[in-house]
Amino acid sequence: MLSPCARPLPSESVALNPVLIYVSAWWGQFESIYVLAVLVSVLLVTRGHVDLAAVVLGVALMTKPQAAFFVVPIAAWLLGATGWRSTFRFGLIALATVAILWLPFVPGGGIQGYVRNLDAYGNQTFSIASLRAWNAWWIMQEASGGQFLADTATLFGPITGRTMAFALAALGELVVFLAVLQSPTRRNLALGVATSVLVCFSLLTAMHERYAFGALVFLTLGFAEPRIRAIWLVFNVVFMANLLAATPASTAIADILPEGGPVSIVGSLAILVLTAASLWVLVHPAAQPEGEATSAGQQLREPAAEGRSIPAQVVR
Question: Which domain does 225 fall in, by range?
């Protein structure tokens, strides 16, 4: 998806990134696993391997529910680039993959247990406005005295924090969906995925600090564009600071980056600004030289008809 001269920097920016090392090697979390599956799915779908991409996305969804953050821009890109029939087929294959992966666990009550866990985590254990994620809800918690707040508490009338969060995130996702649908380029798919993650991380409740990991990975696919590089660079610093503040590896780090306080508020504001900037860059792509604006749909159909591989360019 990247030009040959741009490939090494993005790959090294992820593989050698302190965020990846901290989240995966030191902390042992699943983010790098399901994000890798989504990345493979995106690479496959932009090369015309739509059915296989659907299978891999199904695997990602079964790895962790947070992979759902990626569905909106991928669906929008498929609709714009390949049409509703191909999108419907993609969805059916992804669902079939999920069903097949569940089969070994059905006799032991795996599905029921999974639903119980989701209910327990979502409505009891992690029913919190922000679980140390520097976002809009963390600012509210800090303004309320720095204590965890239940996201089921009413804000005004019948509106709870969770309801408000879903409404705000839905508006942000709608912007992402329409932007990718109207211009289904590979650049917009990659940036749309990153932006979708940022929107969910910034506006939804019950977010853990590490849930923004996918944005770090997919922003690197747009390194050829200076604006996206700038967003990635600032986000990398703020995101790493959030991780260190939430789960410090030493007391020295905890002293420098306390869990709450002014630094966390500044970090939360920075994340919100970066989310808005990513939305802006997605909706307002840089002007491209004439001859490079061929739609992704044409790129998919023409090579497939002639048996050629699809050109590998994300940023066009």
Answer: 4-306
